[in-house]
Amino acid sequence: MNDREKQILYTIIAHYIKTGESVGSRTIEKKYDVGVSSATIRNTMADLEDKGLIEKVHTSSGRVPTKDGYKKYIDDIMPYISCDEYSDCFDSFEGLKSKQLSSIIKAITELVAKSSNSTVITLEPSLEKNRLKKVEMVYVNENRVFIVAITESGVVRTANLILKNYTTEYTIKKLSEYINNIIKENGYSLVELKQVLLNIGSLDEGFESDNTTKLHIANETSLLLHLENLESSLKFIEDKENFKNILKSIIENDKFSTYEVNVLFGADLGIKELENLSLIFTKFEYENELGAICIVGSTRMDYKENIAKLQYVNEILIKSLSYMQGIKLLG
Known about the structure:
Elements: H1 3-19, H2 25-31, H3 38-50, E1 54-56, E2 63-65, H4 67-77, H5 101-116, E3 119-123, E4 132-141, E5 144-151, E6 156-163, H6 169-185, H7 190-200, E7 201-203, H8 205-208, E8 215-218, H9 230-238, H10 240-252, E9 262-265, E10 277-286, E11 289-298, H11 303-330
Antiparallel strand pairs: 1-2, 3-8, 3-11, 4-5, 5-6, 6-7, 9-10, 10-11
């Protein structure tokens, strides 16, 4: 693309983001200082259309950006985006010195949603492999024990253990002491604890479910402004596993680096309900596990502003999570 094509493409995108309306060559000439005639603009727009970067809509003779047009625009502006001008948006963030992962993530999710006026979804890192701090084994009867497992990150997991063989309260007490000694001396994870317990009995949903991977959603209703098929979209939104699966696929994709802001289009995900939406997201790390925070909005969202805000969020996350891990080490 030459400079003139970039100038006209960026102008069309800026106009569409601001107004939601298509634009023609005469409007561009009159409203925007592009320095060329309407005829030149028209010819340039024809070239952009041939390249698949803009397209005509049925309702008018104007043009709007295509998905590829947005992608080109985002690729071009990404190296020049600065997060500094949006730091004021997060002045009220008070989770920096929290000792709880969920408190930090929830606060950031709500602030990003408020500042971007978009739906924000965040998936905390899975802490299945997180080291345990303590395990309590409460004897209920000769074949049932109530398990409470507390991780160093403050995650609490509970479950009922149904024993294969009848056992005394004294035996359970000694087993609890044995496991806690291992935790103290060598470290133990939830996964390892689960394996040990399954050797002597069966566990209910408390340990089997993935409730250590917590999903936060803020400003969820703003999605309704951008969804075309309301009935099917509402069903999609109501099932929170859909959002969790999207973020899990992002986390597991090595193409996306940690603490790097990226953009995906709903159409690229192959999900019909999200076809006219965009996702701006970043991955973050805690205890060697990954999480993700994602702004979900219309394809004509303000990419420059929202990308910058997530860049600033990365700085907050690095400081907050480092502080929290430092407190753990001191403790």
